[in-house]
Amino acid sequence: MNRAPVILFVYNRPEHTREMLDSLHANQLANETTLFVYCDGPKSNASLSVIQRIEKTRAVVKEKTWCGKVIVIEKNDNNGPGHMVISGVTEVLQQYDKVIVVEDDLLFSPYFLTYMNTALLKYAHVKKVMQVSGYNFPVKAFKRSHSAMFLPLISSWGWGTWKRAWNQLDVNAIGYEALKTNGRLRDKFNLDASYNYADMLIAQMETTHVDAWCIRWWWSVFMNKGITLFPDHSLVENVGWDGSGTHCGTKNNFPQPNWDKHYSINTFTNTIRVNNKAYHALKHYLRTHTVPPPAVPKNLWQRAISFLRRKLNG
To answer: How many angstroms separate the CA atoms of 72 and 137, rounded?
Structure first.
């Protein structure tokens, strides 16, 4: 079969990279898969220790043939995670019609590649389906039945897409300004006011504090009324919360204490629409868990409202 290639992005975390590659190598379809590894380069002011960790990470990548074929792309300069992912996925999709994208701090079920390839084949020509996610939030209401569901959001932790969907990526996020004034649009983009994606996108487009591809990808999927396939229990775990990553701090707001590393998905729905029951449960979960502070400083009016709320709440 025509397996989807895997694209891995690494920088300066050799220990995470080795653990992740071991996990990927243990997948059933690893020996049938081509792996592209994009190694970002050092920043202009990088310290000697950072440069050494970059070199160690590249050495790990070359230790053995982790998949059927491994192609390593080493950058001399630092591209940053946002540009690196966008350019890398775009480049590989010039050769293939579908891809799977992973990061250096993920662990996988040995059935991750099987799930991803099955889904990428099954929904290849369904325009509304724009992404397949191997990760899902640890929502207790999601009953484990080894099945997949559609939800109206995207994920950045172990995912796949097609050339026909990635062609819809709008790196300039045209029209994002409406999120500042159109409350209905903002709430919908924020999953019915469940999670503050809007300020993340505004920060991406108007400041230098954010360098992310995923928030622009979510805007693109959202504007095209796209949906994503998710497993009912995550096939991916993120173990990068040790402060060593560019975007991961030291606290995972969505821990998975009961993650089953051998879980598999066997049932794929033929109904191409959002699972509303699951979506309702997800929104409740997001609202009751820690949400990152807004990425854009509040204006004086917003600060005044926040001050009054604090006073009223004692």
So the answer is: 31
Q: For residue 262, with 0-12 CB atoms within 10 Å meaning exposed, 13-18 middle and 19 or more buried, which class applies?
A: exposed
Residue matched to tokens 């059927």? 68
Q: Check: pTM over 0.70? Answer yes or no.
A: yes
| C-alpha dihedral sign at 298, 299, 301, 304 | positive
- Here the tokens at position 99 are 């891809």
Q: Is the CB of residue 235 less than 8 Å from the CB of residue 266?
A: no
pLDDT in 10s for each residue of the chain, 314 residues: 699 999 999 999 999 999 999 999 999 999 999 999 999 999 999 999 999 999 999 999 999 999 999 999 999 999 999 999 999 999 999 999 999 999 999 999 999 999 999 999 999 999 999 999 999 999 999 999 999 999 999 999 999 999 999 999 999 999 999 999 999 999 999 999 999 999 999 999 999 888 899 999 999 999 999 999 999 999 999 997 554 544 444 456 667 777 899 999 999 999 999 999 999 999 999 998 855 544 444 443 344 434 344 434 43
